Amino acid sequence: SPTVSMAELDHLAHIISKSHLETCQHLREELQQMNWQNLLQDEVESYQSKPREVMWQLCAVKITEAIQYVVEFAKRIDGFMDLCQNDQIVLLKAGSLEVVFIRMCRVFDSQNNTVYFDGKFAGPDAFKALGCDDLITSVFDFAKSMCLLHLTEEELALFSAFVLFSADRSWLQEKLQVEKMQQRTHLALQHILQKNQREDGVLNKLRCKVSALRSLCNRHTEKLSAFRAIYPDVIRTHFPPLYKELFG
Amino acid sequence: KEKHKILHQLLQNSTS
Questions:
Q1: With an 8 Å Cβ cutoff, are B4 and A71 in contact?
Q2: Which one, out of A100, A177, A180, A223, has a CA that is 20 to 30 A from the CA of A234?
């Protein structure tokens, strides 16, 4: 765009990257020092033998914790706080879980197909008690495909912001303003990818990830509805209030 | 606002 200079794109990339690094649940240094220890077989079995509702509650708590960091990420991006509060809420309701899924690749071990969960690295089998194997498999596949792109933290940050500023979410009041932020974020991402001498295909691959993320979130909503039909009281009394607010 | 009380609060809180 002729209206955005390279310096502005660098500045935007810097702000978004800084926000991302400040609000990552696990710092990069922490990850490097972390002993990427897998769950032992009896620990896997212990998760598998939990009652369905207990495992759902545990995952809801973990998701909610991760989402709180995403809210903080959004708040530190100037353009986000300039939006009206309705739109801030709309974007977070629709996009915060998507950003959690993106961030998941930072704590994902591709070789073992395990993800950092509750202190150790867990494979899909540890989540059996949830009763949604297909969704879990898709989430792991998504994380694996994100890892294959080998994005830098800055690229990851910009892609997260791009997804957060989705201008096609329902109920936005100032759609144009969101669109403008999304375009700028897209340009910044493109600019940084070029600067990092990434091949052209990466941006296209990331665009494809947007629909994959939507599908994952829709399926999470479906699974939650099915769970709610059987355990309405568990959600009401034991699930984190923020989780209920976002997905209720 | 009432429906999204917590989200509203999180957005209002100054960044920590």
A1: no
A2: A100
The three-class DSSP label of residue B6 is helix
The interface predicted TM-score of the complex, written ipTM, equals 0.90
- Give tens-digit pLDDT for A32-48: 788 789 999 999 999 99
Q: Which of A72, A88, A241 sits opposite B6 (nearest CB)?
A: A241
What pLDDT score does A239 carry? 98
For residue A186, what are the contacts with CB-CB under 8 A and spacing of at least 6?
A162
Q: In chain A, positions 4-23, which contact chain B (CB-CB < 8 Å)?
A: none
| Spatial separation of the C-alpha atoms in residues A178 and A176, rounded to whole Å | 5
Q: What pLDDT does B15 receive?
A: 65
- Reported for A4-11, long-range contacts at CB under 8 A and 24+ positions apart, including other chains, are A4/A184, A4/A187, A6/A191, A8/A184, A9/A184, A9/A187, A9/A188, A9/A191, A9/A192, A10/A188, A10/A191
- Report the chain B residue with the minimal C-alpha distance to residue A22: B16
Residues (pLDDT < 50) of chain A are: none
Q: Are A234 and A56 in contact, with CB atoms under 8 Å apart?
A: yes
The angle subtended at Cα A60 by Cα A59 and Cα A63, nearest 5°, is 85
CA-wise closest residue to A236 among A167, A220, A245? A245
> Partners of A143 in the beta sheet?
none
Phi-psi region of A131 (alpha: psi -120 to 50; beta: other; left: phi over 0): left
pLDDT of residue B16: 53
The shortest CB-CB distance from A71 to any of B3, B5, B10 is to: B10
Q: From the list A85, A241, A246, which residue is nearest B11 (CB)?
A: A85
